[in-house]
Amino acid sequence: MSKSEVKTFVGHGKGFKDDIVLNVTIEDGHPTEVALVSSNESPEVGEKALPELVATANQNKQFKVDGVSGASHTSDGFNAALKDVENQVNGVQPTTVTNVKDGTYVVNFDSFVENQGLPGKGKDTLVVTFKDNQIHDLQVPDYTDTPVIGGMAFDLLKKQVIDHQSTAVDAITSATVSSQGFLSGIAQAVTAAGGDADAFASRKLPVHKPEHRELTTDIVAIGAGLAGFSAALEAAQDGAKVMLLEAGQTYSSSTTRAQGFIMGADTPEQKRRGIQDSADHFYKDLMTVYGDEPNIEPKLLRKLADESGDYIKFLEDQGLKWDKVVNIAPKEPRLTKRAHTIKGMGTTLINTLVKATREKGVDLRLGTKVDDLIIEDGVVKGVEATTVAGDKLTIHASAVLVGTGSYTMNCEMVKKLNPRMTNIDVIVGNGDGSAMKFFDQAGAKIVDVPYLQFMYYFYGVSWGDRFPEAIPESPTLPNYDVLSVDGGGQRLASEDDFTFEFTKRCWYNGYDEGYAVYGQKVADKYPVMTDIGLTTKTAHDKPFGYKETSIAKLAEDVGIDPDKLQATVDRYNQLCDQHEDLDFGKNPDNMIKITAPYYILRMPQICTDAYTGAKINENAQVLDKQDQPIPGLYAAGSCADSGVMGIDYYGDGMSLLNCGVFGRAAAKDAVAKLTKVH
């Protein structure tokens, strides 16, 4: 084009998840107006960075802008889209030709790591072998990613990259961080071998022409987590034809990232270990914890307790073996050892279920996203779905189970449904909110729970690869040696009790943050914890911790009434001197007197799942707004657990038990109705 022409171009650049598409107006050879057409970046990082990148591009009118801190993949994709336009303007075709030296190259790339169920920054090793100017082999011998998420993604990417000799492949759905790290590692290796990484990235992949297919089955289970697997396995062994659909290309559900606890009472494993327990005792303990929550349905809790033992046996029948049976806390009502643990945690559980599912003939399809329910005259009769390749599937079925998890990956939904959750530092869980769409489509009754599954404890996304010796109020790596207080400076529970006892009281007292207070003796015992607190900030840009010479100054740092905090510390020190916690019964060994210098750590909201979802009955049938079952529609797991979960969560393993018991209940009811029809 001539320099004086005004023309608009469309530029594409690979972002964090998908292409970033820009409309760019060119005048006199320079961009005069840049507009974002489409993107699919992470909501809390990439999508927030894009308006800033657009504004910068419109201001400097160049084909490259400075990146936004913390959003490097999005920034790179944005600049790639601008470069695409520049190439079009200048008539330049990106080169796909490059030369690489034969040999094996070892590189490291940033990736994902999970520590105590929380996300962190890991480091993976990639070995790239070049031969005859091609990528001959790709191996990841050492990685921190979850095997059935990152590990699966590496295998999928390896095949695509080697088959097409291109790195212009899409990130694996449900493993974006792992995918981006893997591809960046290949680029490093290409450069080290004397090649041009952009040449590999510019090689176009074959375009698949989408097809439409109609399929028929008895039961469709949506979501390859424990709810979906339990339903599919139960239905298959009862003689039904089952299809299990998972939107991700890997097994990325909350089940995979679980810590490997499943609750159960009067189980075969308890009996083998000489542990005395009963369903009645379990139900009594559950009601002690949940009984005062307005959303709890005792009949559903009763079902959980009564069928927990049989569900543990059901998992054993699938080939699962237990490592230990432990208690969740050293105090009642969580003192009984009924948390069955799995060596290898969620990964072992998923691998066992996948193997069992295939052996029983379940049609398991990854990379298949359900778009809509098929509803005829108020009866759910199947689903419409789209594969990762773009194929459209119409699947007819007699029953559909929704087991797609909650909505914690959907930031807009989190904010809309939980307006009081204003101090979230970390949020995990893998539900995208699709279940809520299905429920709305079917006219289901939604139980609104005004909080997520969360705790107040010391953890932050800003920590990177650092991790403390112990964490105040953590459910899995607790630090009992501190004093925990709410925003009013009050001590609420024993620090060695289960963390949700503190969480419940702090929440109902109206505070969005808790605090851990301690003195120099504890600081010396936990130097890494203390240093992280004093050198990092929360997601809301507040210092995580403070060190002061007086309690009053500590209180002022975090906005607590100094007199109230001083009174609480004085009382705590008095109990330490007596070597007996007369207020809450804390173990005397963890009663360490608080002496100067003084420390305080923020404990923001750490969220692991959500509770708002469909109302179900004992058969896991989804109920309509008149509390009547919606024919053909079932739900289990985090999208339908409001009747059995509350803010004072009973303990690790309850969510998975809920998935299993109600997943099986759905299958049994659906198969029974199927048998009657046949």
UniProtKB/TrEMBL annotation:
E.C. number(s) listed in UniProt: 1.3.99.33
SMART domains in the cross-refs: FMN_bind (SM00900)
Reactions the enzyme catalyzes: dihydrourocanate + A = urocanate + AH2
Cofactors: FMN; FAD
Keywords assigned: FAD, Flavoprotein, Oxidoreductase
Superkingdom of this protein's organism: Bacteria
Signal peptide stretch: none
Domain FMN-binding: start-end pairs: 15-89, 120-193
PANTHER family: FAD-DEPENDENT OXIDOREDUCTASE 2 FAD BINDING DOMAIN-CONTAINING PROTEIN, FUMARATE REDUCTASE
Family, per entry: Belongs to the FAD-dependent oxidoreductase 2 family. FRD/SDH subfamily.
Record-given protein name: Urocanate reductase
Biological classification of the source: Bacteria, Bacillati, Bacillota, Bacilli, Lactobacillales
